[in-house]
Amino acid sequence: MTENEQDIETRPGPRNGSGQDPEHSPAPAEEGVENEESYSLDRRTVAAILFSVDAGNREQLVELLEPLHAADIADVLEQVNAYDRRRLIDLYGKEFDGEILSELDESIREEVISLLTPDVLKDAVREMDSDDVVDLVEYLEEPQQEAILDALEDSDRVAVQQALTFPEESAGRLMQREVVAVPELWTVGQAIDFMRERDDLPDQFYHVILVDPRMKPIGHVTLGRLMASPRRLALSEITEPSFRTIPAMQDEGDVAYAFNQYHLISAPVVDEDDRLVGVITIDDAMIVLDEEHEEDILRLAGVGEGSLNDRFTETIKQRLPWLAVNLGTAILASMVIAMFEGTISRFVALAVLMPIVASMGGNAGTQSLTVAVRAIATRDLTGSNVWRVIRREALVGLTNGAAFAVVMGIIGLIWFGDWRLGAVIAAAMVINMLVAGLAGTMVPVVLDRLKVDPALASGTFVTTVTDVVGFFAFLGLAGLVLI
Amino acid sequence: MTENEQDIETRPGPRNGSGQDPEHSPAPAEEGVENEESYSLDRRTVAAILFSVDAGNREQLVELLEPLHAADIADVLEQVNAYDRRRLIDLYGKEFDGEILSELDESIREEVISLLTPDVLKDAVREMDSDDVVDLVEYLEEPQQEAILDALEDSDRVAVQQALTFPEESAGRLMQREVVAVPELWTVGQAIDFMRERDDLPDQFYHVILVDPRMKPIGHVTLGRLMASPRRLALSEITEPSFRTIPAMQDEGDVAYAFNQYHLISAPVVDEDDRLVGVITIDDAMIVLDEEHEEDILRLAGVGEGSLNDRFTETIKQRLPWLAVNLGTAILASMVIAMFEGTISRFVALAVLMPIVASMGGNAGTQSLTVAVRAIATRDLTGSNVWRVIRREALVGLTNGAAFAVVMGIIGLIWFGDWRLGAVIAAAMVINMLVAGLAGTMVPVVLDRLKVDPALASGTFVTTVTDVVGFFAFLGLAGLVLI
């Protein structure tokens, strides 16, 4: 934004005159100077876009946005401020594509939708696939949801409304309803002829699903294998070994796990009676996997669902509760310290050293808990090996504790010239890091058993334990040994 | 393991007599009692497997492992201890499938390879696709790598060795070399006939790539679209709009980003002269995306590349350096406290309250830095909006700081009956949380500019800043106000 005045002629623009459809040519960003940033929007393009918005030059804006993928246009809208966003959308007008809405971060989706004129919104959503519309409307407020549903054609509206009857974050919401299914007894030739005659094949599909007479999927064949096989071969001879069906009510996180674990490309979705109701493809699963990871990382850091695009008040609302919880635990730790005020007033060195014990315990605990939270998420930490893992983490904590006990014992001795102080901090270090290893593993395991997301709450519990134990062990031992 | 004696008859076994190829039926775990755990190996299956190993019952072991996906068998090997692992592999013998090696966590791959007899290893790797062999051998020690390369047939060995000439973690290593490419001027009918005549089509492919006479990819057509189109149509009429090529030297993290951002299913890989050399499919990109996330989470927590399966000494080696860095920063913070020993000895309440200021700053800083690290990874925090984001985070820190300043001011007043103490902690809180917001955003941005992974090093820097500033502001203000 600070570079609006820059020479915008140097920006890489769409390469015209190459005889190629510009839509099929790579986005300009791909030719950026820095190779590693090859897929991000480069700064110059964003600056040029904002320049055209400042100048109110619609033609130039359209020319700049035309070669960009909808995901990149969404990124532009996310990166500029609310004032520029409004002006950009007004200027862009009816060129606004429905796919941009799908790509937008949820935090500014509502704002952008409210900026679109009813006509533009209608054209935008009518272009979209029904599963994308579901993804778009599911978290919108009632009035906006209805505005979009009203804009749809009748058949699409019914499809979207049916999808919305499935629970949030379920396979039923994730799936597309358009499937290519054939009877299990067909041959390769029959399947190929059937597909070539149908004129409503889905845009993206990778398998032909074999179903029994009651529409229960019993296998699937990749299109590549179909192409490569003789016409007379039975389809059942060339089904994929990795075939799996997904219950419509299954949580989307489990769906993503299955795709990742079993390298699925697409999988049929079935209702309670095992009947085929839709199909989920790997690109949808990849988006969910990405979202789940994002959620884990943010939750581990005590940031609810934060993103850079959230409104200021939204951000405060997300972060304040976690800080409040942290304040509570910090006060708890302070109360432990307060128990030993007398000891501290006689040996001020204790006040100097005590944060070290707590900090090392907190760090060791965070290491253990992060490994445990990840292992739970990837199903590597299960009932079969939980005790072995806990023993192992305790041993790791004890070993690291012993190593740092020696270091800190010597530092304590040298710094304050008192071997007893060195011995106290060494002992407290061993105790606290052992506890850190134990708590770092057991807290997430217990939370998981209690059906609480371990990523969400483990950190607070573990650092509370290591703070309290750290201060108590150090100051308590000091009270016994030094006085 | 503790449940070996359990009634193993209740385990869900392969369903025989259903007339279905067991390979095509879902794994038994999918029928587990708990729906949410539907894709993890259930505890009973693992117990039954270990029971058969204990009993030395090869037939039962093979029967139990037969219906499992290679990824699940790899999980079993990861979950049991080294002793059981050795016995299981010895007993399983030549049934051992190459795919299991691909699925194994790197931490125990070498161990498992060393347990296989040369014959079993040879059979196992000969079944694998060449890109899977590359993935398998790239991080092995020299002797094991050679043992596997020697086991391969000549043509496969050359392909693997060529792939290994590309840099680690590059698109060139990730790609498969088998491609389906046709001249750009061909029609739908020509492409279909060509494919049906070829007898070496890759197992998995989703697009037909159009190339110009110099083998430069200029577009691709999905197999579904090919099926649905009339034979006479030119292929160039039905190419996908989202087409992108990937340079062979590109970092695999950027490849995964492109797949996720642009919803690619497969993309051709090109050499420096833009010639087609291979293709990357979304399932490979999804694995990389998953690995990158794992890396980010673990690095943010100061755990190098840890997993539960690492050997004990390996784990100590990974975690010790981070704890040592943390010890250094904790000592730095202690030295700040030591500057104020005189003040603390006169007001012990300061020792009680000071960890609260540091802890709140540390937490607020972690929140900001996590959001910033994620935004850098997803390319949402760029040169275009960096100053706005920094301003915003500073404002968030200031606002949260003000809120908790009021709370802590009151608590300080009530707890210690001294309004000046309340005022000091309130002021220190505002200062430290403002600094936390600033440092939490600027540190990762600066590290990223310096080409250091912000996930790796930000946490240490930020908490050092908040500890030092927190103690200094609180104790320094106390020294000015209270004395």
Automatic annotation (TrEMBL), chains A, B:
One of its GO terms (molecular function) is magnesium ion transmembrane transporter activity. GO terms for cellular component: plasma membrane. The keyword Cell membrane applies. It is found in: Cell membrane; Membrane. It comes from the Bacteria. Keywords: Cell membrane, Magnesium, Membrane, Metal-binding, Transmembrane, Transmembrane helix, Transport. It is a multi-pass membrane protein. InterPro entries: CBS_dom, CBS_dom_sf, Mg_transptr_MgtE_intracell_dom, MgtE_N_sf, MgtE_transporter, SLC41_membr_dom, SLC41_membr_dom_sf. The chain crosses the membrane at residues 320-340, 394-417, 423-447, 459-482. The keyword Cell membrane applies. Its main location: membrane. Acts as a magnesium transporter. This is Magnesium transporter MgtE. It comes from Pseudooceanicola algae. The gene is mgtE.
